[in-house]
UniProtKB/TrEMBL annotation:
<comment type="similarity">
    <text>Belongs to the DEFL family.</text>
</comment>
<dbReference type="GO" id="GO:0005739">
    <property type="term" value="C:mitochondrion"/>
</dbReference>
<dbReference type="InterPro" id="IPR008176">
    <property type="entry name" value="Defensin_plant"/>
</dbReference>
<keyword id="KW-0611">Plant defense</keyword>
<dbReference type="GO" id="GO:0031640">
    <property type="term" value="P:killing of cells of another organism"/>
</dbReference>
<keyword id="KW-0295">Fungicide</keyword>
<dbReference type="InterPro" id="IPR036574">
    <property type="entry name" value="Scorpion_toxin-like_sf"/>
</dbReference>
<feature type="domain" description="Knottins-like">
    <location>
        <begin position="33"/>
        <end position="79"/>
    </location>
</feature>
<dbReference type="GO" id="GO:0050832">
    <property type="term" value="P:defense response to fungus"/>
</dbReference>
<dbReference type="InterPro" id="IPR003614">
    <property type="entry name" value="Knottins"/>
</dbReference>
<keyword id="KW-0929">Antimicrobial</keyword>
<keyword id="KW-1015">Disulfide bond</keyword>
<dbReference type="Pfam" id="PF00304">
    <property type="entry name" value="Gamma-thionin"/>
</dbReference>
<feature type="signal peptide">
    <location>
        <begin position="1"/>
        <end position="22"/>
    </location>
</feature>
<protein>
    <recommendedName>
        <fullName>Knottins-like domain-containing protein</fullName>
    </recommendedName>
</protein>
<dbReference type="GO" id="GO:0009505">
    <property type="term" value="C:plant-type cell wall"/>
</dbReference>
<keyword id="KW-0732">Signal</keyword>
Length: 84
């Protein structure tokens, strides 16, 4: 009787694990964003729009933003090179 109970328990747990993993679809993964300090933007960065324009027009990145204590301009793009 004990062996039968263990066997039924093992089969039931295995079935539950199988159903739980089968119903989980592929996770939507956000693309990684790479950023680098702008080589063109000079001075402290107070305007996100100016930083983004410099990054797009002169450094061929997707966008840019100001951050950090020293308010530096960082250019951003997808790490895999795909469209953002």
């Amino acid at each position: 009787m004990k062996v039968l109970l263990r066997l039924v328990s093992a089969v039931l747990i295995s079935f539950m694990l199988l159903v739980a993993t089968a119903t989980m679809g592929p996770a939507d993964v956000e693309p990684r964003i790479c950023e680098t300090l702008s080589k063109v933007f000079k001075g402290m960065c107070w305007n996100q729009n100016n930083c983004a324009i410099m990054c797009r027009e002169f450094e061929h990145f997707h966008s840019g933003h100001c951050r950090g204590f020293l308010r530096r301009c960082y250019c951003t793009k997808r790490c895999d090179g795909g469209p953002s």
